[in-house]
Amino acid sequence: MNAKGHSVRGPWTVKSMRTAYENPWMEVREYDVIRPDGKPGLYGVVSPANLAIGILPLFVDGTVMLVGQYRFALDCWSWELPEGGGPKDMDPLESAKRELAEETGLVAAHWLEFMDMHMSNSITDERAIAYLAWDLAEGEAEPEGTEDIVTRLVPFAEALAEAMDGRIRDAFTLAMLLKADYMARNRLIDPALARLILGPA
Fold it and tell me: CB under 8 Å to 74, separation ≥6 — which residues?
């Protein structure tokens, strides 16, 4: 708090806050602020109810499973790695296991958290956590009623190429593919796991 009883966020002063909109999945907050330049302003923040959860499932032959679905917000089709949301008060690994099984039917024997990132941080406080998953067993997918999903298997290198040439445009998927590739090339993960990502030497 400053001398006027206002809260301070770095160079921003917050005079007041109100919830402009709320539903079970998100809250939109509007802040009456004094900007870093000293002028008055408004700042809107979208606050999702859940953590964003992403999974990069790796098969023994070096392929990964992509999930395709129509994204309502963008009104377009999107190829992505398996993603979803998990309650903030739940172990994110448990949420990842549930999401992978729901969207793909896959169950993984081994998991590694490899990324913790912020999503579109100028307008949202959403946090995203990603896992590598391997030693996969196949089962029946059980997508939610909001999901009309198809899947396809592609070599990791092909998925990365699609991310680089724009066929895959989902930011979370791009980040997961790039981070996994970086970790494998720089020997930051187990060599056997790196070979699934990079292919045989």
Answer: none
Q: What is the CATH T-level fold of the domain 50-198, as seen in this structure?
A: Nucleoside Triphosphate Pyrophosphohydrolase (3.90.79)
pLDDT single digits (tens) 80-121 = 999 999 999 999 999 999 999 999 999 999 999 999 999 999
Burial class (CB in 10 A: 0-12, 13-18, 19+), 6: middle
Strand ranges across the sheet with 26-34:
7-9, 12-23, 26-34, 40-48
pTM of the model: 0.92
Ordered DSSP codes for 145-161: TT---EEEEEEHHHHHH
Tally Cβ neighbours within 10 Å of residue 95.
Answer: 22
Count of CB atoms situated within 10 Å of the CB of 92 = 21
| 45: nearest Cα among 119, 134, 114 | 119
